Amino acid sequence: MSRELELKFAVDDLEPVRSKLIGLGAVLAWKGEEENWFFDTSDRRLKASGRTLRLKRQGSSGNRLTVKAKPSEDARYKLRDEYETAVDDIPTVTAILENLGFGESFRYVKNREHWELDGMAIEMDTLNGMAFVEIEGDEPKIDELAGILGLDFGRSTVKSYPQILEEGV
């Protein structure tokens, strides 16, 4: 189990952020297409409780099964426990989940660049014509790096991508 603290920022252009990350010595650890499938019960019990069950494929970087607990009530950052493990066979894992009563409830594909800097993860994502920078770390580091990268806190969100896509934000 890990605890993640993160904040997303909507941006108009990823290039200035990318250039600043390179200048800071950040390392591009992975880049490519990421497919995400969310599963829930027919009565949407997980969604109602604020939890998520996700299966994702990250190109050649591998596949992951993740359960995310309900986020904390702090509206400035998203803080929650995350349980994640590598999986080899997405069709078999999907069949297992379906056999346990879970069905696919949402799916999306995004392009992601995963950067690492000073113990933080920085994700640069594009999906459905939108671009986001997500920083995961501790509060002071998130605030400091967001400032250095020129990110606008007025355009920050703790919403998940399914929420953003469902709401058309």
Q: What would you say about this model in short?
A:
With 169 residues, this protein is of the alpha+beta class.
How would you portray this structure in words?
- The protein is α+β, with helices and mostly antiparallel strands and 169 residues long.
- The chain has five helices and nine strands; from the N terminus they run βαβαβββαβββαβα.
- The chain has a single domain, classed as Hypothetical Protein Pfu-838710-001.
- 25% of the residues lie in helices and 47% in strands.
- An eight-stranded antiparallel barrel has the order 1-5-4-3-2-6-7-8.
- The chain starts with a strand and ends with a helix.
- The mean pLDDT is 94.
How are the secondary structure elements laid out?
Layout: E1 2-11, H1 15-24, E2 27-40, H2 45-49, E3 52-58, E4 63-68, E5 78-87, H3 90-99, E6 103-117, E7 120-127, E8 130-136, H4 139-149, E9 156-157, H5 161-167
Antiparallel strand pairs: 1-5, 1-8, 1-9, 2-3, 2-6, 3-4, 4-5, 6-7, 7-8
Sheet with most strands: strand arrangement: 1-5-4-3-2-6-7-8
Largest sheet: 8 strands, antiparallel, barrel
Helix segment count? Answer: 5
Look at the helices and sheets and give the structural class: alpha+beta
Please compute the radius of gyration using only Cα atoms.
16 Å
Low-confidence blocks of residues: none
| Total separate domains | 1
- The top-level CATH class is Mainly Beta
List how many beta strands DSSP finds.
9
